[in-house]
Design goal:
About 40% of the residues lie in helices and about 30% in strands. The chain has about 400 residues and is of the alpha+beta class. It has two domains: about 180 residues, 2-Layer Sandwich (Beta-Lactamase), CATH 3.30.450; about 220 residues, Nucleotide cyclase, GGDEF domain (Alpha-Beta Plaits, 2-Layer Sandwich). Strands 7, 8, 9, 12, 13, 14, 15 and 16 form an eight-stranded mixed sheet that branches. A six-stranded antiparallel sheet has the order 3-2-1-6-5-4. A hairpin with a 2-residue loop joins strand 12 and strand 13. Helix 1 runs parallel beside helix 6. The protein starts with a helix and ends with a strand. This is Adenylate/guanylate cyclase domain-containing protein.
């Protein structure tokens, strides 16, 4: 491979790899350009740590004639034997290259090397990706060429690394920013923030189904348990809701203590309101079942019979940046949200898990039970409220705090 061929790849990277607009395209085009320069690559892996509550890192693996697959490494996997015995553990911890000719005797002692050798690989090298903030990530290259990598080919690969590392760092920062915004404000809000909707007062009108819930008996529960246990209970409780909300097209906007605010945007298409409301109701039933089955063990005692209250409404709200000084919140406000909050407060008084406004109930047939007209603080007209006929809270008694299901 000629130096000027490698230089063309370096120039492409330095100029921002502009032909690649997605990370999978960037990995694919980088590998293909290196192959065109003469590097006999059959498999390339890029492994990066990331800031994410569920994932320690991500991996992007390119295979010749198969493209790129993306995966994730959960927190805790770095302590498992399969990772500790892998060459990447050395790269991450020590920042050193790892080279292994897989045709040599003893290459099968490491499970990963044995797997690659069995698939036809002949040579392996892992290189550290040294970022400007001092963190270490990793890239691995495998060939199936009978002679493995030549020293000239490895030298050319190392020559490309500085420019490649800077571009990987750019992609990593982009993904980290998008991921953190997704985790903390939601996917739609995060996309708007990244697109430049960051000034106070930047809002837009949204027509959406509104979900507002909270955990019954949270105050006495907080007094009964240590703070660490309360956090664990809340996380388990929110795990009963968030997946169902996301799976049915909703977006969680915020957690407020034991409260949760989510929206299910409605498009302008005729009939979409009915479709969205059906999805919301399915999510509500899933959550109701999950919360009813939830238990928590603390000091030999098992807490059960958790209950929550959920208000469902559909209407128009303002969606955008609100705040003061340099501190902003991307949230949803307006009379529709206020009405949902007032209805949610009725769930305990009416001994119901799910309550729906007249507007929401009119969009989906659920055999609703008409619970009557109620005065609503801040609203001139009373609101008719509806409940589900099979509401589990009717059978489970009062809305007291979780009881002990079992103890030694």
């Amino acid at each position: 491979m000629q130096a000027n061929s490698v230089q063309s790849v370096i120039d492409w990277l330095i100029n921002g790899a502009r032909s690649a607009t997605r990370v999978d395209q960037f990995v694919t085009q980088t590998c293909e350009r290196l192959v065109e320069c003469g590097l006999p690559l059959s498999r390339v892996g890029v492994f990066v740590r990331t800031l994410h509550p569920n994932m320690l890192g991500r991996n992007f693996v390119w295979r010749r004639d198969a493209g790129v697959t993306m995966g994730a490494m959960p927190h805790g996997d770095q302590d498992e034997d399969y990772f500790l015995s892998s060459p990447l553990a050395i790269v991450f911890e020590q920042g050193l290259e790892v080279r292994r000719r897989l045709v040599d005797a003893g290459a099968g002692n490491v499970p990963f090397f044995a797997e690659m050798k069995g698939a036809g690989a002949t040579d392996y090298i892992a290189l550290p990706l040294l970022m400007s903030d001092g963190t270490i990530h990793a890239m691995s290259c495998i060939t199936e060429h009978a002679d493995g990598f030549s020293e000239t080919q490895l030298a050319d690969l190392r020559l490309v690394m500085p420019a490649l590392m800077r571009m990987i760092e750019v992609w990593l920062l982009r993904r980290t920013a998008a991921g953190l915004l997704n985790n903390y404000v939601g996917a739609r809000a995060g996309a708007r923030i990244l697109a430049g909707q960051i000034r106070r007062g930047h809002t837009e009108t949204m027509h959406a189904a509104i979900w507002l819930s909270d955990l019954r008996g949270f105050t006495p529960l907080s007094d009964r348990l240590p703070p660490e246990a309360v956090v664990e209970v809340l996380n388990a409780y929110f795990d009963c809701q968030v997946p169902a909300i996301l799976d049915h097209g909703g977006e969680v906007l915020k957690f407020m203590g034991d409260g949760l605010l989510a929206v299910f945007p409605v498009s302008g298409k005729e009939g979409d309101s009915e479709t969205v409301c059906r999805q919301v109701l399915e999510a509500a039933r899933e959550c109701r079942k999950s919360v009813a089955a939830m238990t928590y063990s603390h000091q030999g005692e098992t807490l059960a019979n958790f209950k929550f209250g959920l208000a469902l409404h559909i209407g128009t709200a303002l969606y955008g940046n609100i705040g003061g000084g340099d501190r902003l919140d991307f949230t949803c406000i307006g009379p529709a949200v206020n009405l949902a909050a007032r209805i949610e407060k009725m769930t305990g008084r009416l001994n119901r898990t799910v309550l729906a406004s007249t507007e929401f109930a009119s969009h989906v047939d659920a055999g609703w039970t008409d619970l009557g007209l109620f005065s609503v603080a801040g609203f001139a007209a009373p609101e008719r409220v509806y409940g589900l006929p099979d509401d589990a809270s009717l059978m489970n008694g009062s809305s007291a705090s979780p009881a002990s299901a079992s103890s030694p």
